[in-house]
Design goal:
The chain has about 110 residues and is an all-alpha fold.
Length: about 110
């Protein structure tokens, strides 16, 4: 799996995703970031363009995420950790982020 160089504005737009969107522990920021990557590749610039090409892969990714982790919210995925400690960072970095990246890549390759 390779990396994609996104423009700085895209990276800035994703800065608030961490710890379940701005530390609220709501929807998983890694999942939102992967859906954003799908939209950047597949979507259009308004609601009339690209919805089919973006919705199916994004929906598949969210369903696969829920099947694997039983929730799309950050809190139930990370309740066993105290705050945003190094164990939680290691868990997210070794389990959740790679899952999101791999599934996003799979659906993008399947939906060309």
């Amino acid at each position: 799996m390779g990396t994609i160089d996104y423009p700085p504005d895209v990276l800035r737009a994703a800065m608030g995703f961490g710890t379940g969107i701005g530390e609220t522990r709501e929807v998983c920021g890694a999942l939102v970031g992967a859906v954003m990557a799908i939209g950047l590749r597949q979507g259009g610039i308004d609601s009339r363009q690209g919805t089919t090409r973006a919705y199916w892969p994004a929906g598949y990714l969210a369903s696969a995420f829920r099947a694997r982790f039983r929730s799309t919210a950050c809190a139930p995925l990370t309740d066993r950790f105290a705050g945003f400690d190094t164990e939680r960072q290691a868990y997210c970095g070794s389990t959740i982020l790679p899952f999101c990246a791999a599934r996003a890549q799979e659906v993008l390759e399947a939906w060309r």
